[in-house]
């Protein structure tokens, strides 16, 4: 545990680019022989091919990532039951990133070098993605990343099936502005995603007549929020924009309620709390609070009904589905469609075949944008109900083309 805390400490106060460099350096110290492994080839010689599942099955992020892992397994099971991919069955190989970014880099290299996977699915935090990014790029192996993130990134060996900034954070800010909630307080975990997201939020606010009254960060996994919540309460804000990740949200919302703050008095809009986290935190702490995602368990449509039924049949009738789980689930199906269009597991051929791939997803139709390797997605704002599910209160009316560098927004020119 002490080693993990030390590494977390290194993340405090660094910028997104600094974080990427620092994390890559940390990853290089793990003892993995990356130079020897560079260019490792996937094994497609037998009747089965291996796919890597890289998630935190332990540590502070397990509250979120275990269910993503389960959704990946469900997709693999469905694909195998339908005949596999190019006549080959998929064999999942799971690795535990353990909520520790250098460990993610180690495990990514092991999947590529030792397991010889044809593709890897996983990561949650941007810190973990930044840590493994050079590993996949060096080895020219594919990672499918399933979680919303801060944008300002594009990699030739990563497909992003979760939302980028213009599909989640910008619509969330537009929604708050439309509701007249223009004075914001920013609370986040101290690593790449929250700091970069908040930089974007502050830039948006300046150009859109909004005001950021405060900005605070807590170490990932922190359970001490009394000071931050007191500052939030006294700031005079209209709303809180929450980029906390993992089980820190449990402590934050319990302290929030203890301080007498409610969704009616001071709403919190969260971008990393989905149905699974609602269940873990407790509905009594979250009822009425807002979230921004692209999918909810309550999203209408036959594809979602089928997905929810299949997931609950596999893992329990009381198990909710969520946006990151759904984005992970569809990433495996999108990869399958790419491979079959390419007629090959070869990475470069799969990439070349990716543009325009469509899938009737639980969230609605999604389409791969080959130029950015992101996905067209519908933005949705939801509100936590008394029953613990999230009910949609607004959506964008259709899929939004991904714009990871916010090139279509004049106010973002300096980012």
Structure description:
This protein has 415 residues and is α/β, with parallel strands linked by helices. The protein contains 15 helices and 15 strands. A hairpin with a 4-residue loop joins strand 12 and strand 13 (374-376). Helix 4 (62-81) runs parallel beside helix 14 (323-342). The radius of gyration is 20 Å and the shape is globular.
Shape: globular
Output the number of helix runs.
Answer: 15
Number of strands: 15
Mean pLDDT: 91
Radius of gyration: 20 Å
Succession of helices and strands:
HHHEHEHEHEEHEHEHEHEHHEHHHEEEEE
Distance between the termini: 36 Å
Q: Which runs of at least 5 residues are low in confidence (pLDDT < 50)?
A: 1-37
Determine the fraction of residues in helical runs and give it as a percent range: 40-55%
Task: Label the structural class.
Answer: alpha/beta
> Mind summarizing the main beta sheet?
7 strands, mixed
**Beta-strand share of residues:** 15-25%
Q: How is the largest sheet built, in terms of strand order?
A: 7-6-8-9-10-14-15
